[in-house]
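Quick one, tokens below:
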């Protein structure tokens, strides 16, 4: 299995006449089991087998903290330079996963330390390239990403970040390096800005070893690849600077994308960029959850945003590949961390996937991680008769869980409410006093909800 490095790579060093070892990451610190530190000269004998996030890395003798948990580094008595990093979002592969493409997960990420989980992990390869805090989860990734060219939207580069001797890109290689990939920055039309750089990890010294399961990404649901349960793989990381790609203060403003031509043997955990090196999106997503509530799924998230942020667009999918917009939530009024939510109607049964698209006022966007919900069968489904009705309607299909039955108008205003007990499965309600039009009946009980519309003549 070949692994690709996230964030940029290394071969460019040789191409630019620089030392092939000048930008090799020589130490990493993660939050595995609370605190895990390993280096090229003193590899940690403990092998991470679960989700764990990159807290810091050392290159050229300088330790940089990624912003995941700088307080933990301080508590350990470590010195560091603050340099927040964020994984770049990979929105699509050049081709669908093939028989060689694997989702790489720490052996305990799926909840089963030795073997496959039931149900198996979500078949959402793209999501594993930017999951976790700041997207810097070293416990997940994709091996043997399909060959071809992919393009990653890249933020506006700040000229002051060029030629400052500080890493701008971070690449990861999490399996068996083989082959080489080509990286280049382009403008919106695909024209190369600066020069392309070819990167290979075959001679990079590992910084540590992890224990992983490899699932077949070409199968849905995924299955463990034969012979790839609890296998040990080396972790390799490298950094790069914009100058290595021929980016200068004169052409930086032209950069729109990071284009990567993959060999088919690339093994990535993530590709990350230093936030100090570019103008970030004006919103930071702190959390994102999905909870089934009867016939709907409630999406909840917390974000911080400034006045350049436009809106959040919840999106849903049945295959984790093609997503459609489910709605739009305006930017919070206050420029503080704000909790927001959105309810999405879902099918009676089957898997449904959700993500958030964060969009600023200039149209730039980023995505959250992908969440999966398996809609439960056997939920209550309300029906009313007659419909349309003049005075009263018969309601059938009330859930034997009691709760409340409410009647709303199309503006969401509560008009009537009835308390139900567990014996009420059918009832008659009156529409007296209501104007002709459409209304919504909603039964809510602990852990569930069902609804239907009714029209008054």
């Amino acid at each position: 299995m070949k692994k690709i490095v996230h964030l940029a790579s290394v071969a460019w060093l040789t191409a630019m006449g620089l030392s092939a070892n000048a930008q090799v990451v020589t130490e990493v610190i993660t939050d595995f089991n609370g605190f895990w530190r390993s280096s090229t000269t003193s590899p940690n004998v403990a092998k991470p087998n679960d989700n764990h996030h990159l807290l810091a890395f050392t290159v050229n003798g300088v330790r940089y903290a990624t912003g995941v948990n700088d307080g933990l580094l301080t508590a350990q008595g470590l010195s560091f330079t603050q340099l927040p990093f964020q994984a770049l979002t990979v929105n699509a592969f050049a081709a669908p996963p093939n028989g060689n493409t694997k989702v790489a997960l720490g052996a305990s990420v799926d909840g089963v330390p030795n073997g496959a989980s039931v149900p198996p992990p979500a078949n959402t390869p793209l999501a594993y390239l930017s999951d976790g805090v700041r997207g810097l989860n070293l416990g997940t990734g994709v091996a043997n990403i399909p060959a071809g060219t992919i393009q990653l939207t890249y933020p506006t580069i700040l000229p002051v970040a060029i030629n400052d001797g500080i890493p701008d890109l971070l690449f990861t290689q999490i399996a068996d390096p083989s082959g080489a990939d080509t990286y280049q920055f382009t403008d919106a039309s695909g024209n190369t800005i600066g020069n392309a750089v070819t990167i290979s990890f075959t001679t990079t010294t590992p910084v540590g070893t992890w224990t992983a399961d490899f699932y077949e990404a070409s199968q849905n649901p995924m299955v463990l690849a034969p012979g790839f349960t609890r296998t040990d793989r080396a972790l390799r990381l490298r950094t790069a600077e914009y100058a290595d790609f021929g980016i200068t203060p004169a052409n930086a403003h032209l950069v729109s994308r990071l284009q990567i031509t993959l060999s088919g043997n690339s093994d990535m955990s993530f590709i990350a960029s230093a936030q100090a090196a570019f103008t970030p999106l004006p919103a930071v997503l702190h959390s994102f959850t999905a909870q089934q509530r009867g016939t709907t799924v409630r999406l909840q998230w917390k974000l911080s945003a400034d006045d350049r942020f436009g809106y959040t667009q919840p999106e849903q999918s049945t295959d984790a590949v093609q997503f459609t917009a489910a709605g739009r939530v305006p930017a919070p009024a206050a420029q503080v961390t704000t909790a927001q939510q959105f309810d999405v109607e879902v099918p009676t049964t089957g898997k449904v996937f959700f993500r958030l698209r964060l969009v600023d006022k200039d149209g730039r966007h980023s995505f959250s991680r992908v969440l999966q919900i398996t809609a439960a069968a056997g939920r209550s489904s309300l029906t009313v008769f007659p419909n349309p009705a003049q005075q009263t309607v018969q309601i059938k299909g009330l859930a034997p869980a009691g709760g409340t039955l409410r009647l709303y108008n199309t503006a969401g205003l509560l008009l009537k409410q009835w308390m139900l007990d567990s014996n009420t499965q059918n009832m008659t309600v009156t529409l007296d006093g209501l104007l002709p039009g459409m209304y919504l009946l909603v039964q809510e009980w602990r852990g569930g909800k069902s609804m239907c519309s009714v029209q008054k003549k």
